[in-house]
Amino acid sequence: MTRIRIVEVGPRDGLQNEPRTVPLDTKVELVERLAGAGLPAVEAGAFVSPKWVPQMADTAALLARLRRRPGVSYPVLVPNAKGLEAALAAGVEEIAVFGAASESFSQRNINCSIAESLERFRPVAAQALAAGVRVRGYVSCVLGCPYEGEVDPGRVAEVAARLIDLGCYEVSLGDTIGVGTPARARALVRRVAGAVPVERLALHFHDTWGQAVANILACLETGVTVVDSAVAGLGGCPYARGASGNVATEDVLYLLHGLGLETGVDLDSVARTGEWISAALTRPNGSKAGHAWMAR
Ligand code: HMG
Ligand code: MG
Q: Are the CB atoms for 226 and 202 separated by under 8 Å?
C-alpha cells in the first residue's frame, strides 16, 4: 500500500501569522501533541529575524523545552548563516531553506533576489550537511505570486533543481496564496518532476481558494508522496497579504485514508488537537473534516 508522508507545518506556518503572541507553553504542547498523533515531521519554528516575524522569536526556547520523540523530525526554517548558527546551537536535526519562484516575493519575504538567496543557501546547506543536519527546501509562489500574478513553471523547476543541487533531500512546492486549480497544479508537478525526481518533491498548498484538497488529489497522480499541512488549517504567510492557512491536516488525512492510503497518523488525535488549538487561539477551526469528526 502506498504510504504518504505528512509534514505538519502548523506550529511554524500556522503560528507565524498569528497577530497575538502565543504562549510558549501552548506552542510546546502543540508540537508534542502533533508528534504524539503519529506525524513523522512537525515543523517546529523558524530562526528568522524577530523583527520580521516576531511570533517565531522563541523557537530556541521551544526546542529547549520540547520532549523530542525518536523517529520524529522537527525541522526549522533557516534563511541565512545567522539562522543556521542558532539552529545548530539548539541541536536541530533538520533545517529548511526557503526560496521563491517570483522575484518580488523573494524581495518581500527574505529581502534579496532569487539568485542572491540561492547563493546565501549554498554555504548554509553545506555547513548543515557537514554537521549531519538534513536540509529541506521550499519554493514559494509556484502557482502564482501576490505581487506578480502568474509564475513561469520553468522558473519553479529551475529553482527546485538548484535547491536539490545545494543538497536539499526534498523540495516542497508552495502554492503560497492558494490560487492553483487541480489541472494546473498537476501540470506544474509534472513539469518540475522533469527536473527533480518526483520522489523528492512535496506539496505545500495553502487553501485560500478552497482548492487545496482537490489539488492534492490531482497531484497524487504524478506519484508525489509527501504532503505538507497544518492542523486546523492554521496560518497564512506574513508576506503574502490575504493568504489563508495551509490545507488542514485533518482534511488531508480524511482524503488519504478514504483513498485507502496509509499515513500512520491518527485522525482522532489530530482532530482533538485542532479543536484545542483553535480554542486556545480563539479562532474558528479551519478544518471541515476536523469539525465533522468532533461533531459525529
Ligand atoms: P535583512 O534585514 O536583509 O537581514 O533580513 P540582515 O542580514 O541585513 O540583518 C538585519 C537584522 O536582522 C540584524 O539585526 C540581524 O542580526 C538580524 P540588527 O542588527 O538590525 O539588530 N538577523 C537575524 N536575526 C535572527 N535570526 C536570523 C537573522 N538574520 C538576520 N536568521 C532576513 C533578511 C532573511 C533575515 C529577513 O528577511 C527574515 O527574517 N525573513 C523571514 C521571513 C519569513 O520568515 N517568512 C515566513 C516564512 S516563508 C513562508 O511562510 C513560505 C513557506 O511556508 C512556503 C509557502 O507557503 O510558499 C515556507
Ligand atoms: Mg506556507
A: yes
- 69: amino acid identity, one letter: R
Selected catalytic residue, list 141, 168, 219, 237: 237
Amino acid at 273: T
Asked whether the beta carbons of 114 and 108 are under 8 A apart, the reply is: no
pLDDT at residue 268 tops 80: yes
CA of 53 to the centre of ligand 1 (A): 8
Residue type for position 11: P
Per-residue b or e along 13-27, where b marks 16 or more CB atoms closer than 10 Å to that residue's CB: bbbbbbeeebeeebb
- Nearest to residue 138, comparing CAs of 98, 190, 90, 198? 98
- Is any ligand 1 atom within 6 A of the Cβ of residue 143? no
- Domains annotated on the chain, with CATH: 5-229 (3.20.20.70)
Separation of first and last alpha carbons in the chain: 28
Burial of 197 per CB tally in 10 Å (0-12, 13-18, 19+): exposed
Interface confidence, given as ipTM, is 0.99
> Per-residue confidence at 174, pLDDT binned at 50, 70, 90?
very high
- How far apart (Å, rounded) are the C-alpha atoms in residues 207 and 197? 25
C-alpha cell at 225: 508522496
237 given a catalytic annotation: yes
- The 8-class DSSP code of residue 69 comes to P
DSSP 8-state class, residue 206: B
Rg (CA), the chain: 17
- Between CA 218 and CA 185 the distance in angstroms is 7
